[in-house]
Fold:
Amino acid sequence: MKQFFKYTLATIVGVIIAWFIGILLFFGIVGALSKSDASVTTLKPNSVYELELKGTLTDRSEDNPYLLLAEAFGQPEEKVIGLDDVLANISKAKNDVNIAGIYLKGGMLFGGFASFKEIRDALTDFKTSGKFIVAYADTYMQSNYYITSVADKVLINPEGLFEFKGLASEKVFFKNTLEKLGIQMQIVKVGTYKSAVEPFVNTKMSDANREQVTVYLNSMWSTILKQISTDRKIPIDKLNGFADEMMMFQPTEKALKYNLIDSLVYADQVDSILKSYIKVKGEKVNLVKHSKMSKVHDQKKFEKNKLAVIYAVGGIDDGDNQGIVSEKLIETINEVAKDKMVKAVVFRVSSPGGSAYGSEQIWRALSNLKAKKPLIVSMGDYAASGGYYISCMADKIVAQPNTITGSIGIFGLIPDISGLNNKLGLTYDVVKTNKMSDGISVNRPFRAEERDLMQNYVNRGYELFVKRCADGRKKTTDEMKTIAEGRVWTGEDALRIGLVDELGGMNDAIKIAATQAKLTAYQVREYPEKEDFATKLMKSFGEEAETRFAKAYLGENYKLFIHIKNIEKMNGIQARLPFDLIIR
Structure:
């Protein structure tokens, strides 16, 4: 027995020591990665900034512990690129004498067309410096080609694929599936065009929804064609003709013949083409990757006066810590409002909406901020429904032509699972003290009185939403209702009907804010502050890990899973776009 305890104790001590050493090694690796990643990049003369168009584009960059660890152990990990870093790096490349040009390395970059346009516009501005842009890809997605068509030379692998086919928006409908399960969705809404509820009660788009989708898709496609036409010097009618041919399945030589690209080359030939631009002989081109370019020291001087950029990205109060959490965002807004060194604010909105209650609270905080300092809204890919609610009070609203905005409408969604209960043999009984004590139960259909109560509740929310928008845009409520009704607009159409003031991106909004505050010298500060590496690492072992496992297991079905999961998280009436607004 003595020997047993001796060996057992030795084993326990060994496990503890091994665990402790493992933890030290783990954090040692992480610390080394974090430290090396934070080092400042020094540029050499005739360097070329390499921007790889691969991964997922988000409004704001953030540390990704999984990516660093994956790189350390040679494992693949989804790459995420921040639009803020891309725009900053293009600006640095334009102004730094050591950067000779930009190499756009092909891949698959997923994001919204408004964000893609911001990158494209920044690249167009970069070319005014007289420096070159060269693009190469084995395969061009249509969205990536939209960005790279600005380049001086657009190159593709001789056996590569070239996608150019126009835009499509596909919706998924759950009505028949829910009926098979014995579930009926009970809908209350305001807005003829408010289509977020349609997947649960229809099997296809309503006429009103088809009308609005057709209008905004054609508006977005028109913006894309105009810019490609200008840079490639191809008439728009010819570009539409090429799209009708479904270029992906045409010989690659056809894209060359149509002047959509400039040369058919292999990846190993790109280096010599870059050399020809920078007049370098007998040595390899010094390519500065995006992550390294982000570490190049910013030459801007420190300024006492600050211009704040507050980010509001994602759904509003979707029931988790992802996206916009109204309570946390309001804390940030109040903090900025109290900072006397902040002279103006740009509110960056990239949101399809969400909780009407949360939207109203954010509106209130922003209204208080606006009373103290200029407030300019910069719209990203989406600023619709609740996303427009939290934008409407701004001094000026700036959107891209292909931003999705508007959708001024509200809905409520309550399931009736009595049919499912019948299938399962479940029955319910209730004891109550008052007439409405068991009101709005999911285990039976609405009573007429309950439906009236819900409809009146939604109507009040809609009237308040419309009033906020009308007051913010200096219109009457009747004028606002003619362009509300839940209808979705592109930024280009929103400018025409008075929902936005100017077309442009983040940099344009910053310039307007500076002008309104009469600032000639200032520093731009972003809010809320980004989480440091250690904080992100700790969080990555919680919900983020769960999300990554779900994505890996479900693949393309992950979006459908999130679509259904979000239904159970809805709290109160909703001001949001359709969940499945996917444009490809």
